Please model this.
Amino acid sequence: MPPAGKGDHGAKQRNSHHHCARKPPLFSAGLTKEYRAITERSDVIPPPTHYHHCTTITSILKIDNIGMTKGTKNTIIYRRYGSPCGELLLGSLGENLCLCNWTAGSKRSRDDRRLERLLCARFEEGTSQVIEQAARQLDEYFAGTRREFSVPLLFAGSEFQKTVWNALTTIPFGTTVSYAGLASRLGSPTAVRAVANANGANAISIFAPCHRVIGADGTLTGYGGGLAAKRALLELEGATFKS
Model:
C-alpha cells in the first residue's frame, strides 16, 4: 500500500502476504443480500458486454492475460497527481490503469488493500507509460479541452462491482444519473443499495466517472474525494444538479 497522503488518516504500510482469490460464484444482480459476501471474495469476471467508445476496459479472465503470475507478487506502479480538486493517486499494472483515487480520507486504504489482494500485488512508487498518458489526459480534462478518455482500465473487484464500474464509463460527459437509474440500466431496479455500494468502491475515479451518479432528487451524495470535489467536477462539466 502506498504511504499515506495528506489527509489520509490511519493508513499503514502492510507487509503481510496476500493470496489470489478464487473465482467467485455467479451473481444475480437482483440478489442484494448476497452482494456483500460476493464482493469479499471475487476477483474474476467474464468480459464486459459493452464498452464506452473511447475507453478500453481489461477484464481478468486469466491472470497471465495481463502479465501477472499466480503465486508471485505483481507490482502496481503509482505516483501522485495534483488536481485542482485535490491530490489523486495514479496506479498501473502492466499496460493498464488500475488506480485513480483520492488520497484524502479512509476509502483509499480500503481500495489499496483490495487491489493488493485481488491483483496479488505490491505497490512501488514510480511511473509508467499509461500513468503518464492518464496524467496528460487529466490535465486536458481539467483544462476543459477533453471530454472522453482513451486510457486502458483494469478493474479489480467482484463480478457485480465490475459490471457497475463498466456502466459508469457509459455515462456521458456533462450528464448525471441517479443510483436508481443506474440500477435500472443494469436490469436490476431493486438493487439500488448494491449499486450505490459498488459505486462508492470505485478505485478509478474520473475515468470511471462515479461523480456523475447523484441522488434521485438531484442532490449530491457521498464521494470519495469529498462533496466539494464532486461539485467541482460536475461544475467543470456543466452538469445540472441541486446544491
User: Anything to note?
Assistant: The chain has one domain: 51-65+72-237.
